[in-house]
Amino acid sequence: MGQQKLSLFRLKTNRLLWLTAITVAAIVVYRYFQFAYGNNTLPYGFYVEKISKSGSSRFGAADLPFEPEIFNNVTIFNQANYTGERGPETIIRTRTSEKKDTISTPGFVSESEISSNKSSGFDESDERSSVDSFRLSGNESTAEKAKNLGLSSYNNTMCTNLTKEVDISSGSEHKLAAPTDFTSSISHSTEVSPNFTHPVLTNGPNETDSVNDERFKTSEDDVNIRGKNSSTTILAKENKDSDIPVPEVTSISEMNKLLLQNHASNRSMKPRWSSVVDQELLQARSEIENAPVVENVENLYAPLYRNVSTFKRSYELMEQTLKVYVYREGSKPIMHSPYLVGIYASEGWFMKLMEAHKRFVTKDPKKAHLFYLPFSSRMLEETLYVKNSPSFSNLIQYLHNYVDLISGKHPYWNRTGGADHFLVACHDWAPAETNYHLANCIRALCNADVKEGFVFGKDVSLPETNVYSGQNPTKRIGGQPASKRTTLAFFAGSMHGYVRPILMQHWENKDPDIKIFSKLPRSKANRNYVDYMRSSKYCICAKGYEVNSPRVVEAIFYECVPVIISDNFVPPFFEVLNWESFAVIISEKDIPNLKSILLSIPQSRYLQMQMMVKKVQHHFLWHKNPVKYDIFHMILHSIWYNRVFTARAS
């Protein structure tokens, strides 16, 4: 009996030892694979195979200066100005317009509707898109200001994959319960516009299924690719040690330094094969850098510019040399469908004039120095965005498919990784929509925010122009002479964002010299608003949800000195214009000192600035037939100028 108990005890002990050994071995194996691929937990013990650095992509990774990180076939570029280790944090504020919802034709707004919408002096309130987004990028001070003002509830969440995690504004007019699933698929949006054809060319893994699947992730040291079915070029890792640091609040002087440093560093991709256009661009750069000194130039008042000599020479070379190839691919209404009225009209007018231009457009892509992607960010939102959806991932996917379309059909995108391609987009979402597959392009953006990935020396700040008439875009410009401007400063607008409520708190009905309104009485053709701008010395251009505002150009239209209150906003045509010569730029923290700052400007200085506003005005005017130095040519010049200074020989 004792012998049987002893045998049973030994058997149980052996089993226990075996179980312990198996458990320990399993833990060791688990830890081994977990350590090899970071802190991510592997689902169901799947082994995640590293992508070989040599890869099987159709292109190698040699000579490429930087690489985006790949999540789920979405390319997040590590740009020179990006300061955080995490993805951009996004708040999407949902606002709808009853008037907008009654429009039967997508993207069409009548002039009478615009006049009605704008009669209270609101630029963004009625005509902005149904969703406004702004990135915090870890900016705690911004979030804290919004929290303290009680403007919205917020929850900073990481933007991962194509999904935008959001915090919905709790405003009284438009409430939306936060859904549990933030992913919006392209098939979902197709239901909204059943007659619209998406250029879907890829057959990659399903977005929703692969969001949390480790099989589609790579280790940090790998060379990443966009997807096995994508035609776009493989990109190499960026050397973060060479990144130029960007301050939390970037002043104009610091922006100047970043522009010069980024032009000097020249991080664009080396062309994969040689072309005569590369030599032409390098020759143009040499001539611009060694431009002969000029003093008196017709229509160019020297103090308005950083360097009038280099601008004059660069503009001349653009007229003599530049050729642009406009892609014909893509369907209306997103592609080739210019939107000509309202606050997003800049992108539409540029598209209309660019596609019809005979001097700059070439039908031979081999002769092109630049390639234009003719899409409308406004029509992208109008056509594909699902109302009240917290996600616009389908909009990003559309652009991804378009890049695959042109890169699969033409070789030119892959020659430079898109560095010689450009887009012009005025919608608030454009930085987020284009910061994936189009981030290597030259992006002309109205929402030119240093903290939203705007790259000095590559990207262009696009003027936001409020066009009231598609037939007469220069209607209602001009204002009172300086001697008859009796109001020191003026502002009227909706309480968007955190800056305007601070402005109201300190100055609404507080001082007879400063006219600050949250709402003006309605008037025909917005007469009250226009009259104030025409009769004020300084016009306050305070940011809303985003850094940009049409008030900057409106002030120039009405010959009122702009006072820009918008930290990290890159003013239009920053490569060329000396904004401090004709505008006042005030930090958001200095709003309480607004009057003392303006009164400290001597009358002689004010008169000079007001005169310069009138002289710079012609750079901001649209014409049905473009004229020299007008806004069309200035936008194109900024794109040309940045391409010249980022071009490389093969």
Automatic annotation (TrEMBL):
Biased composition (Polar residues): 186-196
Major place of residence: Golgi
Family: Belongs to the glycosyltransferase 47 family.
Protein name from the UniProt record: Putative xylogalacturonan beta-1,3-xylosyltransferase
InterPro entries linked: Exostosin (IPR004263), Exostosin_GT47 (IPR040911)
Topology of the protein relative to the lipid bilayer: Single-pass type II membrane protein
Keywords: Glycosyltransferase, Golgi apparatus, Membrane, Signal-anchor, Transferase, Transmembrane, Transmembrane helix
Membrane-spanning parts: 16-33
MF terms (GO), sorted A to Z: glycosyltransferase activity
GO cellular component, one term: Golgi membrane
Listed PANTHER family: EXOSTOSIN FAMILY PROTEIN, EXOSTOSIN HEPARAN SULFATE GLYCOSYLTRANSFERASE -RELATED
Organism of derivation: Lupinus albus (White lupine)
Pfam families on file: Exostosin_GT47
Lineage: Eukaryota, Viridiplantae, Streptophyta, Embryophyta, Tracheophyta
Domain Exostosin GT47, first and last residues per copy: 319-599
Low complexity bias: start-end ranges: 110-120
Entry's localization field: Golgi apparatus membrane
Region (Disordered): 95-142, 186-214
